[in-house]
Specification:
By secondary structure, this protein is mainly beta. Helix content is 4%, strand content 46%. The chain is built from 1 helix and 8 strands. A 5-stranded antiparallel sheet has the order 1-2-3-7-6, with no helix packed on it. A hairpin with a 2-residue loop joins strand 1 and strand 2.
Length: 114
């Protein structure tokens, strides 16, 4: 099961990355993120939680799917945290975007040594 994008919960995390919904499904926290123009700019990242002691809690899994235009991608991060525990965590994300596209003929050469 997936969340549906909800404009009332949507906010831009950084250029090219929008949190489009968050909520609970089957007593697990779901956070849905849309990465715009991933084939052009390689927008990507991840969401995680921090507990009161500063320990990082990673998603137990995620599900990705294309947007309708197949231009961007949704990623839904799933945490084994129910709504009664949520106040014990802060939500963070690391997002990587590129707003410059290198075009033209280019190549990369490298030497791999034993």
């Amino acid at each position: 099961e997936y969340l549906c994008a909800d404009d009332s919960k949507s906010f831009v995390a950084t250029s090219g990355v929008t949190v489009t919904n968050y909520g609970f499904i089957n007593d697990k926290l779901h956070i849905q993120v849309h990465y715009d123009k991933i084939l052009k700019y390689d927008n990507h990242g991840y969401v995680y939680l921090l507990d009161a002691d500063g320990n990082r809690v990673l998603a137990e899994g995620s599900r990705g799917f294309w947007d309708e235009e197949r231009n961007g991608s949704y990623e839904e991060y799933i945490f084994d945290v129910d709504n009664k525990e949520l106040d014990q965590y802060a939500i963070y994300g690391h997002f990587f975007t590129c707003q410059n596209l290198v075009e033209g003929e280019w190549e990369v050469n490298l030497t791999i040594e034993e």
